[in-house]
Amino acid sequence: MATRSPGFSRTQTSRGNSCKNIFNKIRQGQITGVGLTRGSQFPVALLEERDKRAQWQGIPVLLRRLHESSHPNSDLAKIHSMVMELSSLLSMEAMSFVTEERKTPQESISPNTYTFDLFGGVDLFVEILMRPTLTVQGDLPILSDDLIKDCLSVLYNCCICTEGVTKSLAAREDFVTFLFTLMSNKKVFLQTATLIEDILSVRKEIIQLEEIPNLASLVQSFNQQQLANFCRILSVTISEPDVGVDDKHTLLARSTQQKTSTCPSRAESNQVTLVNIPGFIERLCKLATRKVTEAADASPRLELEDWHSWLDNALVLDALMQLAIEEAEQSSTESSDESSLSSSPLRHRLPQSMKIVHEIMYKVEVLYVLCVLLMGRQRNQVHRMLAEFKLIPGLNNLFDKLIWRRQPSGHVLHRQNQNCDCSPEISFKIQFLRLLQSFSDHHENKYLLLSGQELNELSDIYLNANIFEMEALNNTDRSLVCDGKKGLLTRLISVMKKEPIDSSFRFWQARAVESFLRGTPSYADQVFLLRRGLLEHILYCIIDSGCKSHDVLQSYFDLLGELMKFNIDAFKRFNKYVNTEEKFQMFLTQINSSLVDSNMLVRCIVLSLDRFESQTKDVKVVEVFSECRLLSYMAQVENRLSFLFRLTSIINVQTLTQENVSCLNTSLVLLMLARRRGKLPFYLSALREKEYAEKYPGCLLNNFHNLLRFWQHHYLNKDKDSTCLENSSCIPFTYWKETVSVLLGSGRSSRCAIASYIDEAYRDLDRDFLEL
Questions:
Q1: Cβ proximity of 201 and 161 under 8 Å
Q2: Looking at the DSSP assignment, which residues form a beta bridge with residue 451?
Q3: According to the CATH classification, is domain 20-202 in 1.25.10?
Q4: What InterPro entries does UniProt report for this protein, alphabetically (predicted)?
Q5: Residue 55: left (phi > 0), alpha (psi -120 to 50), or beta?
Q6: Distance CA 366, CA 431 (A)
């Protein structure tokens, strides 16, 4: 085998070690803070010699020259030329990273950016940008907008291509605050906002907006396009950090966390800060409801399968950025927002579908921020503002032309919990539905989703049924409701009925409609939706459509429960649709396939049955009761006990979440209704017999005892949750508390205490939750 000469081998080793030694010395200095910490500290001759061998593209030498030239009174033109030279060496790597499937940052893929960072380029560029803020001299040269842009672009490229750069910048509080102040310069806004968004997304702690100097003035200075882009940044600052898929999302873990932290979180504080900025909510409403200028001869759209390639194309990205810049320059006043947009030369050169996507991308961010604020501590204040500024009527006017246009054939549907990059249009629809859900949920402003004509229909339903009109309906300001004949709720039901059966939009649509019904059951609200064929459509989806999605089925079970609760007309319609034993058995199979998903419907049926059994003088109730398969099925005590057995066995304190805690409450409803009729001992005896039949004595009752102890711990300190339980069940919360106390009674002789039904040898009732 041929071998290399010893001289060649030694030379190669020497050169390789020389380069590695320089890298190692810099890295060691950066870690320890002792010795050489940046490449500019090496002699130029040494850098030039090593550059040829290591193929550093002259970056270390350029940085050395830039460092020497960038003193307070330096020639900014000379500095800019070097910055541009460095930028050209890094920009192609960043573009390659973005367009080639977004690879994980690697030194081998981005050698120039890696070298730039290693030799102190990131710190040097931060220093150049911040230098005007670090000196008191007033006669220093002012950095040009182009120089600032190029510095920001280089830093952003480094964040994209080099691992660790974004986190190191995020750790510098002074630099993060400086970037916020830099956004007041409209010429560099886009580059600054892009870099801030990347930095904030990796911070361990959410930034406190109240600490940003003159935040209110800054936000008020933004034009509408800048405000929309700023919402991308705000979304990171007002959302609680994602806890992931570990046990931190359990109610037990949340309860423990709340004990250690009684103060509002940073996200909550930031929400308060934003809501209190004058004009902020009003401008978001204008952005959310702003119309897109439609072409007169066509209405093209961006196909979902094409949008990735469009946005990844460098020319398209440049066009979008240039469009934003032109809009920023032309939109100096609020009144010019739409007129200047329509007259922008570049806007006319862009395809119509790109204009629509451009607007949709803005609205996604705006709707997300509004949605988060609606769920925060300032909910009532935000609600009043959204009503006053006519957000809902504005969205209603956009519904057909922008929000829910026809889907093309061959449409690739996004599914719930699928890990993929949503297109702007899909994200827009989901954010719109989430906003409707948050807006309607347990709030009297839900009637703003209707039109004036539809409000009259509700009033007529109350009148014909000889029922007093609900105060919330009577108090609705009709000048703030939807225009035309159809409100948002009716439009939403129409598109839901046409949606492909496997579409994940069905989940969000059902959630939005269900939120309109939540709270104290309203007969008129239910009848309004029954008249629009909603119950039959839901039953079709559950029984006949072949739908397999647990998420979609759960949302339909919940919606069906709210639609039928205490409403004898709904049960009559149910019986008319489920008119064969085969259909009824299919319905029961779907319910029994996952009680976590269907237990809210089970609760509705049990509560309704209890009420109907007390209305023996009502001819209609008696007639429906005698014919309805569903009511007859639930009236059999063995079926109610079967549900109770399973509901109490599929959860425990350690696995309780916001998603499955409803199983515990449904179990309690079954036992409260039994207690009302003096049957509680019978139910507890049945649970004990079930344990012994399954050869697990004490297991079921010990678990249920611990669950009830946690229930006290969780609900007795939560006003909102307790109110929701009372309103949705029409059972006073005092009775909930009394029943739990009775079940947890310590008296061995009490026939209504769980402890009385557990033999001494199997009793394990007093262990701490954290030990279970």
A1: no
A2: 482
A3: yes
A4: ARM-type_fold (IPR016024), TRPC4AP (IPR022162)
A5: left
A6: 9
- State whether the Cα torsion 132-135-138-141 is positive or negative: negative
Closest CA to 494 of 603, 399, 597: 399
Please give the Cα distance from 196 to 202 (Å, whole number).
10
What 3-state DSSP class applies to 240? coil
Q: Residue-wise over 118-140: b if at least 16 C-beta within 10 A, else e? A: bbbbbbbbbebbebeeeeeeeee
Query: Which uninterrupted H or E stretch holds 435?
Result: helix 424-440
Indicate the range of 498-502, 594-598, 641-645 predicted with least confidence.
Answer: 498-502
CB 551 within 8 A of CB 417: yes
Residue 146 amino acid letter: D
Cα 149 from Cα 522, distance rounded (Å): 58
* pTM listed for this prediction: 0.84
| Cβ(683)–Cβ(751) below 8 Å | no
> What's phi and psi for 451, nearest 5 deg?
-90, 170
577: its two tokens: 């649709």
For residue 341 the two structure tokens come to 């947009």
The DSSP 8-state label assigned to residue 678 in this structure reads: T
Task: Evaluate if residue 354 carries a pLDDT over 70.
Answer: no
In the predicted structure, residue 174 carries a pLDDT above the cut 80 = yes
Q: How far apart are CA 599 and CA 701, in angstroms?
A: 20
Arithmetic mean of pLDDT, 611-623 = 92
Least confident of 394-403, 545-554, 581-590, 763-772: 763-772
* Phi/psi of residue 358, nearest 5 degrees: -55, -45
Any residues with CB less than 8 A from the CB of 150 and at least 6 apart, and which?
A: 80, 83, 84, 87
Residue 408: which pLDDT band, with cuts at 50, 70 and 90? Answer: very low
Phi, psi of 114 (to 5 degrees): -60, -45
Angle between helices 523-530 and 505-517 (to 10 degrees): 140
Say which residues have a Cβ less than 8 Å from residue 554's Cβ, sequence separation at least 6: 594, 596, 597, 598
Cα separation of 231 and 608, whole Å? 45
Token pair of 231 as six digits:
């919402």
3-state secondary structure of 707: helix
Instruction: For 482, list phi and psi in degrees, rounded to 5.
Output: -70, 145
- How is the chain split into domains, by residue range? 20-202
Between 677 and 248, the more confident residue is: 677
Distance of CA 592 to the CA centre of its chain: 30
Write the CB contacts of 318 (distance below 8 Å, at least 6 apart in sequence): none
